[in-house]
Amino acid sequence: MGEYRTELVVVQPTSLCNLNCTYCYVPGRRVATRMTFEALEAVCKKVLESELVKDEIEFLWHAGEPLLAGIEFYERALNFMATYNKRGLRIRNNIQTNGTLLDSRWANFLATHGFSVGVSIDGPSFLHDMQRVRWSGTGSHAATLRGVQELRRHGIRPGALCVLTRAALQSPEELFDFFLDNDFSAVAFNVEEVENANRTTSLHPDEGNNSVVAEYTDFTRRLFDRWWPHRSKIRIREFHDLGQVFAAHRVDETYSREVFETSPLRILTIHRDGNISTFSPEFAGSVA
Asked: Gene3D superfamilies annotated for this entry (predicted)?
């Protein structure tokens, strides 16, 4: 095993969310408690002074709707980082948002301070609005797209995070065309899971057969065929990761990929209450 190092710190500013997505794993989505400024300062200080952090570190603001913490929260975070980054580390900030609260003020702030932005969006409205709904039950697709457009007006080309449900598996071409047509820089697909606050999934194998595996296989094949001619325009995480493995294996047949998500201390996840976990950033209720 190589030396331990921390490369990604997932911070949950709040578990509060203005959406009630049917598959969400995050508990406490109606709890308005925010990480205190004292805890935020301690996070920045301890991370930036840690011997586990080498040349660079990424902060991912995630789990709940991070924009609900308010701009002042992130202004404080940036000030704390400037204060405690005495080693001159390269610091990257990435925020994962549902996009519905993005306005010109938020987009300007994120652009000015060099944040990378991931938007949680499940493709076209006929898929997205089945699951990504407000607490009233109405869809959020139009508001999310307005937020994406605001980002673009400020020079930010966001990535997309899409959750695959049983319905989505039937529409790989429509999904890909949506992300391509809306000029997302990249897309990552997470499968709908039974996890923490989410107790059901549409991807359970059918009784007596395993058709969902066949559907997922067919989805992946059709998605790849649709993406390949456009591969220079948009990155798909799953295909990118596989490509890296194949390339490394051609050079060294004994190559074995280290799984980032399960490497001890590579990822730290810090809950709004200050609790800490490592491994996958799905800590909120246990990150992405």
From this structure: Aldolase class I
